[in-house]
Amino acid sequence: MKWLLLLCLLLCVDTSWAQTSGETLDVESIKRRSVAVKDSAAAICDLQTAHYGDWDDLPISATHPTVDSLLTPTIKAELLQQINIRCAQLGKDTLLTSDLFYILRPYIDWLHDTDPHYRIGARIPIDARVYKTKRNFLKRRRGLGFNLLMVEDTLIVNTSVNPLFHRGDMIVAINGIKSSEMFEYNYHDRYTSPDFLLQNYYFQHLPKDYTVQLIRNGELMTITTEGMKSQKASSSLAFEESMDNNIRIYDSAKCGYIALPKFTRFYNPRIIKVLQSNIEKFKAKGCKNIILDLRYNTGGSGYMFDNLLSLFINRHTIPYMKSQRVRVSPQTEADYEFITEDMVGQTIALPDSCVVKTIDLNPELYMCDDVHIYILMSKNTSSIAASFCNILQYNESATLVGESLWRNALRYGEAVTGDVWFSSLLYETSVSTTEYDEYTLAVDGVLMPDIAIPYVAEDYLSGRDAMLEKLLGIIKNETVRQFSYPIDIENKKGADFKALQTF
Asked: For residue 27, is pLDDT > 90?
């Protein structure tokens, strides 16, 4: 069977071109065993072999510490039932990568709910007949030049460096593909990009031209453009959302504001220096409140986090991790000296010597004795960024504002690239290898804000930052700060509070 799958994959290459770039592929072109988009890096040979009957099994990661044990027979049966219903509705005997993503969506969503790090994506081979080198491909690639806010079934332009598109525009369709259709093939992230959404929809992210239907100020409009060079657009968007471009003071609220869109090993030392400099400036200008915006921050590296946390927490030592488990695999066995080859495939508890149970801080770096810290977060706030929010909340050093994080945002980490799914281009773009048990106030794995401000699509159609504006309004009108922690802070009660008393 395996060689038959591989043979079908190899035979599915089709040099014929589909409809002209910028047009929606017709039904017949979608049914073909390969998809090619003119003037793009396409000719995708991406298919499973002929589909026989019902699905009776699911791919299991060999790297994740708990997914296999959590996939009980009952859950597996329920997922397979949903998958087979979708497969019957699609009615195809040969499946494109996008078809596979759509059919397997119940399982993909379950994996992501179990562990937000766990993601399935699609690899896209570069067609040498169109692009002689990868550099040539990147040079010629064009994008729309804006990023998106996704609220339920609504796509709203969030940041734009393309003058044709304005913050607050509601996207109805791109190249004939309705927003609702794109949702079927994508994760429900809070912040995303049209390139990413279109990539998972029949690889339509590389057209020569774009036709975008949108609603602006209540009026339906159609904009046709060749787009912007992707490299220039990406760098311009990164600058617009960068820390350096998002430092300001709101005088009416006596509040400083700094966006922290990423944590990286290279970037973290600079973050600390910028924070130190600007916190001093904020205080000198009479600011009593500081907002740290982590809504776009998907994590990265915890390098120098002890110094970063020291700016906000006035203690010598804080609790961090209760325990840690790791899945022994070729990706992890070299990380620990005590691991032996016979442990491969097992999920083992790490000895205390390998677990960072506490974090030593430097009280001399503390800067927030006379200011109050607010942290804006969204469900995109994840990984080490989620831990940053958790640590500051747990140590009563900041007020979390916004929406709850993904369930288990703190639970897993140390992600690696995983395996290919079937004989297709679907693969595990991110798989956690480690399970953590942090000290936290999270409830059932969900880290909740102290001040809940949900996303409402209508609030953003005018181009305003509704969550930030609402928080500033709360700060201006607030006389007595009230907190809604899951434990009784005032009376020092709660299962995890003993850990706080220790240090």
From this structure: no
State which amino acid sits at residue 378.
Answer: S
Q: What is the DSSP string of 300-365?
A: B--TTHHHHHHTT---SEEE-EEEEEEE-STTTGGG-TT--GGGTT-EEEPPGGGS--EEE--GGG
- Could you tell me where the DSSP H helices lie in 289-363? 305-310
CATH topology of domain 140-230: Pdz3 Domain (2.30.42)
Distance CA 248, CA 498 (A): 39
pLDDT category, 29, cuts 50, 70, 90?
very low
pLDDT category at 343 given cuts 50, 70, 90 is: confident
Look at the block and give the residue holding tokens 């949108």.
214
Cα–Cα dist 393/253, whole Å: 22
∠ CA(292), CA(297), CA(301), 5° rounding?
105
Predicted local confidence at residue 462, as pLDDT: 94
Sorted by where each begins, the domain ranges of the chain are 2-122, 140-230, 241-316+360-408+445-501
The first and second tokens of residue 227, run together, are: 């787009």
Secondary structure element (H or E) that encloses residue 147, with its range? strand 146-151
Portion of the chain with pLDDT greater than 70, in percent: 80
In the chain, the percentage of residues whose pLDDT exceeds 90 is 60
243-266: b (≥16 Cβ within 10 Å) or e:
beeebebbeebbbbbbbbbbbeee
Contact 206, 229 (CB under 8 A): no
Q: Kindly state the DSSP code that residue 365 receives in the 8-state scheme.
A: G
- Calpha distance 51→88 (Å, rounded): 11
Token output for 479: 């006389």
Q: Which two tokens stand for residue 305?
A: 């986090």
Rounded to two decimals, the pTM is: 0.84
Nearby residues of 252 by Cβ (< 8 Å), 6 or more positions away = 472, 476
Helices and strands, number each (H, E), in the chain: 15, 23
Distance CA 10, CA 57 (A): 24
CB 416 within 8 A of CB 48: no
Confidence at 37, pLDDT banded by 50, 70, 90? very low
Q: For domain 241-316+360-408+445-501, give the CATH number.
A: 3.90.226.10
